[in-house]
Structure formats: C-alpha cells, structure tokens
Write a structure and sequence with these properties.
The complex is a heterodimer of chains A (161) and B (259).
Chain A (H helix, E strand, L loop, with lengths): L13 H21 L4 H13 L5 H33 L6 H29 L9 H10 L18
Helix pairs in contact in A: 1-2, 1-3, 1-4, 2-3, 3-4, 3-5
Chain B lengths: L1 H24 L12 H17 L9 H17 L8 E5 L6 E4 L3 E5 H6 L3 H16 L2 H10 L1 H4 L4 H11 L6 H17 L6 H11 L18 H9 L16 H5 L3
Parallel strand pairs in B: 1-3
Antiparallel strand pairs in B: 2-3
Helix pairs in contact in B: 2-8, 5-9, 5-10, 10-11
The chains are: A mainly alpha (161), B mainly alpha (259).
The complex binds zinc ion.
Amino acid sequence: MKYHPIPQPDEIEVRVREDAMGAYLMMFATAALGLPLPILNLVAAIVYYYVNRDKGKFVQFHMLQSLYSQIPVTLLNSGLVAWTIVNFVRDFNFTSIYWGYLIMTGVAGLVYLIFSIVGAVKARKGLFYYFIFFGKIAYHQVYRIRPEQTGSTPSNQPPGL
Amino acid sequence: MQQSILRDLGILLGIFGLIWLGASLFSFYPEDPQLLSIEREQKLGDAYVDLVLLNPMFQELENEKIDSSIQVIGDRLSGGLNQSEFDYRFIVFDSEMINAFTLPGGNILISTGLIGFSESPEELAAVIAHEMGHVEERHVVARLIKELGIEILTSGDPYVLGEVTGMLTSTRFDRKQEEEADLFACHLLEDSNIEPRTLATVFRRLEQETGNELLEHFEIISTHPNFRSRIRDVLSYLPEDDFTVEPFTMDWEEIKSGL
Ligand SMILES: [Zn+2]
C-alpha cells in the first residue's frame, strides 16, 4: 500500500496548525457540556470534522485521530451513565464489576485527556503525533493513495453479431 | 500496516480489560462478604446469638416437642444441601410476632408466632429454606458490611456489639437478594423432597395478612409490595421429572397446640 508523503513542520502554515490544534481543544470546550450526555462530545467532533474537512491532509489527520480516539471514550462513558441509572432505578446493586468499570472508564478518560493535550501542543508546532491504534488508522485513511478508479466512464460496445 | 493496527488494538483492549478486571477483583469494594471469612462469621455469629437471646423480646423457647420438630425440619433441609460450610443452628424464640431471621454464621431464629402461622411443617420449611438462602449467599454479612463497614462489624467492643445485634434482628434485604434467596429455597426444597411451590403459598398467605402488625419485622416481606412477582417466580419454578414429595409425618396441629 502506498502513502502520500507527509509534510515537514516548516511546510505547514500557522493557520493550518491552529485548525489542527482546534481538533483537540474542541473536546475540552464540549467536555463540560457533554458530561451528562457523552454523545454530545462526539456530535461536536463530527461537526468540526465536516466544517474543516477541506483544510488539507494535516488538519484532516488530527481531526480524525481526535474523533476516532473519542469514540471508545464516549461509548465507555455512555455505558457508565446507563449502568448507573439502571442501578439507581432498580436495586442499588453496585457490584464490584461496576466499580471496576467505573475505574477503567476514569482511566480511559484521563489517558484520552493527556494524549489530547499532547496532540494539541504537537499540532500547534506543526508536528505529527500518533496515538496508539487511532493514529495509524487516521494516517492510513488520510494519506493512503487511493487506486485510480477504472471503468467509471461508460463505453459503448457494438452488439455481438 | 494492518497487522500493526491489529496489534495496537490488541494492546489497548488488553490494557483496559486488565484494568477493569484488576479493579473489579481488588477488594476495595466495601460490601464484599469475602472480607469476612466463614470461620470468623461463625465465631461472630455465636457472639451475636448469645446477645440476641439476652433480649427479652427474643427469649429462647424451652419446649422439647417443638425443638425436636424444628430439628426434624432443619435436618431435612440441611440434608438437602449439597455441601455447606455452615453449621446450621435453628433457634425458636417466644414471640407472638410472625418472624424469622438470620444471624451470621448460619444461625436462624424462628418465632413461635411463625410456627403458629404455618399451616404445615412444609410451610415452615419453605420459610427456613429462604433464610438458609440468605446464609449460603452470604447476604447477612454483605448487608452488614455495606451498612456498617467491616471494622464495626468485627469490633470486639461490647457496646458496639450490642448495637450491631440490635440491627441484626431487623435486617432488610434488597429485591435481588430476596429473589436469590427465593430461588435458592426452591432448589433446596426440591432437593429435600418438599414441594418447592409451598413458598408461593406462604407468600400468598402473608400477602393476605398485609397490614397485620405482627408481620412488622418479618424480613421475608422486605420487597413488599413486590409479592406478586415473587409468587409468579416461585410458581414458575419447575421441579425435575424425578422429583417426589416426602411429606413430614409429624402431627403438626398437635405440635402447635403445645405453643
Ligand atoms: Zn429474605
């Protein structure tokens, strides 16, 4: 599989760097809003992506990395909210598996937060920063050279006589 | 490329899976009955029993005929247990309250009022089997650790012990614990050759007594007003095909007349 070359820091304009940094900072702006409803964060990230989609591959990479890494965190948080409500409504049966999940979700959120801050700082400096797993997916999706589409133009053929 | 992405995913899932597992197993969880070993629970239970029986409301009944019939019922149920780490002790106390409760360590206290209320030894056995469910599932200890914490529960201080004892006689369980105890009772009754659905009969009769002050402290109705769903659950319990009923041979009315 072939990839487009990635730009060096001196090739990236300040405006582009700031848009890339915004992809991470976006989360902090919506984090407070999204606390009771974690899905709101994700919606904001998706909107940000569509608004800035045409600002180049560097911005796209950082937006996708931020967006993708947010999905599991959002799912974990949503699961926690749902599980907590169920426990409150039903029988207050907060099992150790629940507490374990709560701690794991907290750790995931913290790790996500730290990586997002580092990501924002690096993006501002015009640097790439690859999160484990999500960085590779984002890079693959943005910088992959897509094969030329063939057979897309229709051509006329005579009937077989 | 693909391999390295999959490896990353594996690492992530592994790390967070381990965090979940590790945090779940780690016994910071304050309700975990495992915090108290069964040997310790038995020892504590003996101390609690002595204290409870000092209370004039829970005077131990001295009536050989009743004691021996309770023993017959208890032995039948203990024999139905596959294996148990508890030494069961069934104590009858003199009280018009319709009541039965469980102290730590497999000590089950039964009121004379409950014996009078039971229309057959099977009905009493159904209630006792439910209490044994709370013992085997360690609900009593879990409840106490949740409400008081392990330090207070195991405190050697006589005053604290006395207070805990007071609470033990009115322990309430939550719906899930009640359902677990009911299900346990059904299995145990079946394994003891007693019709498991007798428990539903007891529930129905208790429901008809709603409002009766004598029932005030009976833990089995903790989930009131959820009786109907518990009756439904018990009635839908299906014994195995080879299940046979072995009725108690004692003359129940005669025994009750000695109360
Ligand atoms: Zn119960």
